[in-house]
Automatic annotation (TrEMBL):
The keyword tRNA processing does not apply. GO terms for biological process: methylation. This is Class I SAM-dependent methyltransferase. Pfam families: Methyltransf_11. Residues 229-251 are annotated as: Disordered. Keywords: Methyltransferase, Transferase. Residues 241-251 have a biased composition (Pro residues). Residues 71-169 form the Methyltransferase type domain. The keyword Transferase applies. SUPFAM superfamilies: S-adenosyl-L-methionine-dependent methyltransferases (SSF53335).
Length: 287
């Protein structure tokens, strides 16, 4: 990663006023609500294909129990981390490059009363601000597509995990010709910010960083259905007074994606349907 890339990635995600947009989306979802639970936030706080259903399924593979220390690599708005804290009683630390996301993640976590079990800090996951063996588990949901130096990323994760620690990657990976991939996509408006890699590159870099592969799942078919649903939800909420794109409230599920959400969803769907990209889960264990 060049010195310019982390700030360009953070600029891609930073919206300004994101908490207000989330509150507006929550008001539309739950008119007159006074209190919130983690479950109420699912429509707005998860930024990966499959949303909360995917989070729940991946969480099963982490073999968690109360008190285990989990690192959420590129934690976004904190939805996946809160799920682990709430439903598995894990002690979760999220790290993310984008200040605004970290701020929103903390505030939402405070609101649902989980601040003692889910913490968030700003940082670059290719230089993790933690000592060796600080965590029992780690996961990374839809982050590697923004990271050029995945070798360094996985070496960092292996450094902060304890021996035998499980690590789950759930990224959109490259299957076809990279020159045919269409943009904008949710993680990069143009190809310069996108660092797609093939599953075999991930596997080889993970092995080199000290991980053994445990399992691999291709989530293409679920992705196609879930992206069609997300596109439909966006179209339903878009009216002549609230067109897709521009400075208008997006459909709740697309809040984190900002403007052009419907175009980004449509391009991602097309790339997956054409067999160029696939959301892929790799489960591995530190040797
Ligand atoms: C598509 S979002 C996924 C967020 C979250 N994992 C989720 O599934 O809801 C990608 C996230 O990766 C973060 N990110 C990208 N590159 C990063 C880096 N080098 N260090 C830390 N976070 C990074 C972005 O700020 C963004 O929050």
């Amino acid at each position: 990663m060049t010195a310019q890339q982390p700030s360009a990635v953070a600029r891609h995600y930073r919206q300004g006023g994101l908490l207000r947009k989330i509150d507006e989306a929550l008001d539309r979802l739950y008119p007159g609500h006074t209190t919130l639970t983690t479950d109420d936030l699912h429509g707005v706080d998860e930024f990966h294909i499959g949303g909360h259903a995917a989070t729940r399924e991946l969480a099963e593979h982490l073999e968690l129990r109360a008190g285990l220390r989990v690192l959420d690599v590129g934690s976004g708005l904190g939805g996946p981390a809160r799920h682990l804290a709430q439903h598995a009683g894990a002690d979760v630390t999220g790290v993310d490059l984008t200040e605004e996301y970290v701020d929103v993640a903390r505030r939402l976590t405070d609101r649902v009363g989980l601040a003692d079990r889910a913490r968030f800090q700003q940082g670059d996951v290719t230089a993790l601000p933690f000592p060796r063996a600080s965590f029992d588990r780690a996961w990374m949901l839809h982050v590697g597509m923004n990271i050029e130096d995945k070798g360094r990323l996985f070496t960092e994760i292996s450094r902060v995990l304890t021996d035998n620690g499980l690590f789950i990657v759930y990224d959109v990976m490259l299957l076809g010709d990279p020159t045919l991939v269409r943009y904008p996509l949710p993680w990069a408006s143009e190809p310069e910010l996108s660092f797609l890699a093939r599953p075999q590159e991930y596997r080889s870099l993970l092995r080199r960083a000290g991980f053994d592969m445990v399992a691999e799942h291709d989530h293409r078919s679920r992705a196609i259905q879930s992206l069609r649903d997300a596109g439909d939800a966006h179209r339903r909420i878009s009216t002549p007074h609230n067109p897709p794109g521009g400075d208008t409230p997006p459909a709740p599920i697309n809040v984190a994606m900002g403007i052009d959400a419907s175009t980004k969803i449509a391009k991602l769907l097309k790339n997956i349907e054409e067999g160029l990209l696939a959301p892929t889960e790799l489960i591995c264990r530190l040797r």
